[in-house]
Amino acid sequence: MSDSASSKILTRPELLAPAGDQDCIRAAVENGADAVYFGLADGFNARARAANFNLENVGEILSSLHRRGVKGYVTLNTLAFTDELAQVETIIRCLAKANVDAVLVQDLGVARMIREIAPGLTIHASTQMTLTSAECIQAVESLGIRRVVLPRELSIDEIRQIHSLTSVELEAFVHGALCVAYSGQCLTSESLGGRSANRGQCAQACRLPYELLCDDELRDLGPQRYLLSPQDLAAYPLTRELIEAGVRCFKIEGRLKTPEYVANITQHYRRAIDDVMSGGPVSLSRKDVQRMEQSFSRGFSVGWLQGCDHKALVPATSSAKRGVLLGTVTAVHRDTVAVDLTCEVRAGDGIVFDGDRYEGNEQGGRIFQVLRQGKPLDGTVDAGIVELTFDRSRLDLSQLWVGQQVWKTDDPRLNQELRKSFDLADPRRKTPVTFTIRAESGMPLRIEGRAANGAVCSVVSELPLQVAQKHSLTRELLHEQLSRLGATIYELQDLDATIVGNPMVPLSVLGKLRRELIQQLETSLPQTEIPVSSENAVAMLRRRLPGRQIVESRPLLTVLCRTPEQVRQVLSIGAEDRLVDCLIADFQDLREYREAILAARNSGITMYTATPRIQKPDEMGLFRLMLKQAPDGVLVRNLSGLKYFPEQGIPVACDYSLNVTNDLTAEYLMQFGPGWLTPSYDLNRSQLMELIRYTPPQWLEVVVHQHMPMFHMEHCVFCAVISPGTNKTNCGRPCDFHKVELRDRAGVDHPLIADVGCRNTLFNATAQSSAVAVPELLGLGVRRFRVELLRESGAEVDAFVRLYGGLIRGDISCQNVLSSLKVNSQIGVTLDRVTG
């Protein structure tokens, strides 16, 4: 370590551990977590499959945590629908009463409610809010957000830039599963099965196998089948760099993991942080890392923290937990398998031989014996070649081969050790307490104490102290007696004793006073309750909305085009029949916007251009480039663009990616001055109609035809699979020359497209139509409708524009549109979901 590095003054980060149940809370606390985060069984948290906690028990949980000097954060980090806001308000009031240390929030409307209900309740912006830059953070500063959980896709350099431009605390994930899609921007589960990741119901489609078609030909990728499944994040080697970059909270992912996992990972990151804060390097050994891998690992990586290396991030050969690499098969005998070890092993461990788990040809089991040269070995063996025996009824040794890798998937001894770290009657992690004592002959003994968690105690003996005849009171005796705090959470840290006049104290008196001290410490922790407003917050915020009124005006059709050719085709139709009122250009190359804008202007049609969905540090230049093209307006897909373009005098509209699912979020975004909002694709038909009933319909543009954008990823499949490069600096941009689809297990080919920032979007192969909902939408006052194109041919573009243009203007009936969509095989639309 250099002198300059070691001389830097570092701010100790908080270590934040996950808790899916009560055992996980104990595991986190006993193994060194500064804070834990957990969700509620009532819903509205991004891990609906975790055990979670009942709302009525939160106060008790928080009280228990605070006694241990640990903070508790509750995840309210999903989108809320309009008809759920009253329920969310009730939850917020209960959390304030429970004195929760912070609430993690995704929904902007929910954040507004918290500010109205309990201004003193701390808000942390969930990674689901997609705050990828200082500019995005600045756009929500008015919500009083204290901390931002950064997206996993940021590098340390980008985190450092954000830290230099904002005073908001930054929290970063340091360990656990990596989502391949940006959190808050993944619509895969919603698109494929109606289970929204924005509602805590992710179906993990990223962990499934896919095949790749390049220019309509299937590529043979060998063992690479899991093209969207990243390795797990393990940032322990970067502890110092993260702290120096401004990360104030290290977050461990894993609310669906076991308490043993929580104990294991928490204790190792506790050590890594303490190592760095004491001035040294991270001291975790290879064995320590293997212990972490044993609890859960798809293979460890540093994710995006050191920049993009698409090939390293997604090796694509597996998607499931593998555990620790035990070694390599060197020989297969009739009853044993010889393995050259790379980690320790003992009888009873679970192992698996490398194979294709998806095809079901993977073998494994528990080890019966560990032998060396035919002789049984007791205990643990960590090196050399050993022979392993198994239950032959479960394992076909003839299917194994020399050179095959072997993975240790389970270590019962490690699990027992981890369980003992938190499943104890006597807490392992203690709260320090200091006693101040005055012992004077002829006066009562006085003892006062103060614990690190704020608890206090004070006792006085019933009788004055006698002068000692033989054994006078000493500091050592006081320390010995008062350190016996039993199976409590407290331990004696220091003792300040003033002894005057050679007093003596019977041990029975000290014992009685000690018990009184313990009782006071257990019951004297300061209890606070966050003040809450008595007024109905949802009703109050809704009173600020402008009154709903249906404006009798001509319905408008917007068409989003993804190629210049589509723009020309739509303009030719628009010029002929005036069916299209507005165009949106969403091109991979922003330099092509200028020609499209001029063409639309010459045709008398308004042209908006679309921003990328993500804006990261150093990417404001893309906005400036768009500004130079002089569009009529900009469709913004991130909070940074929503703030930037109006400041430059450019009209804007908000796209679906800003996640408008309720009227309070809509009203907050409208304060930035957009012309209209696009409701979130997480809304089904009834939820969309409910939003419209509470929101001025002139605020909304509803997408009635589209291919659902499923995964939106920093990870580039083009680079990872069909380029020799590792990132956008050396990939050769195959996305500019090749058409790529990913084929799923059902044989469906989903289009993959890269944007100007080299981020990939995987679109659902099948278009979705909301044509059946258009009459009801018109009746509720909606006057803006959008059709989104993807790779449609000229004939398909023509058909879509004429069908939907005629539908919203009343020239074509809904039944005729549905018939045309169903029978025209060239269009290929399904109607299984009636809204996006």
Overview of the molecule:
This protein is an alpha/beta fold and 836 residues long. It has 4 domains: 11-178 and 230-312, Aldolase class I (TIM Barrel, Alpha-Beta Barrel), CATH 3.20.20; 323-420, Beta Barrel (Elongation Factor Tu (Ef-tu), domain 3), CATH 2.40.30.10; 432-523, no CATH class; 549-709 and 766-830, Aldolase class I (TIM Barrel, Alpha-Beta Barrel), CATH 3.20.20.70. It is built from 26 helices and 39 strands. A 9-stranded mixed sheet has the order 31-30-29-28-27-38-32-37-39. Strands 1-2-3-4-5-6-7-11 form an 8-stranded parallel barrel, surrounded by 6 helices. An 8-stranded antiparallel sheet has the order 16-15-20-13-14-19-17-18. Helix 7 links the parallel strand 6 and strand 7. Helix 4 (85-97) crosses helix 5 (108-117), helix 7 (156-165) packs parallel to helix 9 (239-245) and helix 17 (564-577) packs across helix 25. The radius of gyration is 31 Å and the shape is globular. It starts with a helix and ends in a 6-residue tail after the last strand. Mean pLDDT is 91; it is low at 1-6, 823-828 and 830-836.
CATH fold topology of the largest domain: TIM Barrel
Give the class-level CATH name of the largest domain. Answer: Alpha Beta
Mean pLDDT: 91
Structural class of the helices, strands and pairings? Answer: alpha/beta
Tally of distinct domains: 4
Principal-axis shape equals: globular
Q: Biggest sheet, strands in spatial order?
A: 31-30-29-28-27-38-32-37-39
Largest sheet: 9 strands, mixed
Uncertain runs with pLDDT below 50, 5 residues or more? 1-6, 823-828, 830-836
- Our count of helices gives 26
What is the CA-CA span between the terminal residues? 54 Å
